[in-house]
């Protein structure tokens, strides 16, 4: 059976998928909708909720020493790595803050996407070697207040450069897809609900 791993980053956690004042997140609603759509299609879904797990995104001295030795001292990082290695598809969902991902997602890339485990260093003249042998596709789902065209043409799509070009394509993996929900603060609840319904069909493709 196909295995989807969703990596989610928002301080309110996935529990904020409902329209409750001061505890609501469109990003969380996207996770819930994605999970429902995938499961309806007969797919196994594994959700990594970074804030609920209490993930520490900081690369401490001891973490870096272990990273250089291709070892892991954080049990949660080791658990995440095992789950990524089993995944046929990885979906990252988070809001855009200051034109990039929040700290926990950046820390996830720093600590979890580790050499000797998720990838191997290149030999002469070659790119990094991807060790995610089951992986078929990587999807990035983002939510932002910035208009999409402004983010793309003025800021230059920094998040896709980091996630796609700077990470997965560097490992030789090119089957990537970006779904961006921009200018969200301007939308009514009805408009957001409509986007969620459409998203449910988009994410499984």
UniProtKB/TrEMBL annotation:
| Protein family membership | Belongs to the NAD(P)H dehydrogenase (quinone) family.
Where do the Flavodoxin-like fold domain residues begin and end?
A: 17-191
Signal peptide positions (record):
none
Record-linked Pfam families: Flavodoxin_2
Q: Which organism is it from?
A: Brochothrix thermosphacta
Q: Name one GO molecular function term.
A: NAD(P)H dehydrogenase (quinone) activity
Q: PANTHER family given for it?
A: NAD P H OXIDOREDUCTASE-RELATED (PTHR10204), NAD(P)H DEHYDROGENASE [QUINONE] 1 ISOFORM 1 (PTHR10204:SF34)
Name it: Putative NAD(P)H oxidoreductase
The residue ranges crossing the membrane are: none
**InterPro entries from the UniProt entry:** Flavodoxin_fold, Flavoprotein-like_sf, NAD(P)H_dehydrogenase_qn
Q: Which residues form a coiled coil?
A: none
């Amino acid at each position: 059976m196909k295995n989807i791993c969703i990596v989610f980053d928002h301080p309110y956690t996935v529990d904020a998928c409902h329209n409750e004042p001061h505890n609501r997140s469109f990003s969380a609603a996207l996770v819930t909708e994605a999970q429902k759509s995938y499961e309806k299609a007969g797919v196994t879904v594994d959700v990594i909720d970074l804030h609920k797990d209490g993930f520490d995104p900081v690369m401490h001295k001891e973490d870096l020493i272990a990273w250089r030795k291709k070892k892991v001292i954080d049990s949660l990082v080791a658990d995440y790595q095992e789950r990524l290695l089993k995944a046929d598809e990885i979906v990252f969902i988070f809001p855009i803050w200051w034109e990039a991902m929040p700290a926990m997602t950046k820390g996830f890339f720093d600590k979890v996407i580790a050499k000797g485990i998720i990838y191997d260093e290149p030999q002469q003249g070659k790119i990094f070697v991807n060790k995610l042998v089951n992986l078929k596709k990587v999807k990035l789902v983002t939510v932002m207040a910035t208009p999409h065209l402004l983010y793309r043409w003025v800021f230059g799509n920094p998040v896709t450069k980091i996630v796609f070009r700077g990470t997965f394509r560097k490992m030789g993996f090119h089957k990537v897809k970006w779904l961006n929900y921009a200018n969200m603060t301007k939308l009514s609840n009805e408009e957001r609900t409509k986007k969620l319904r459409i998203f449910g069909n988009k994410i499984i493709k």
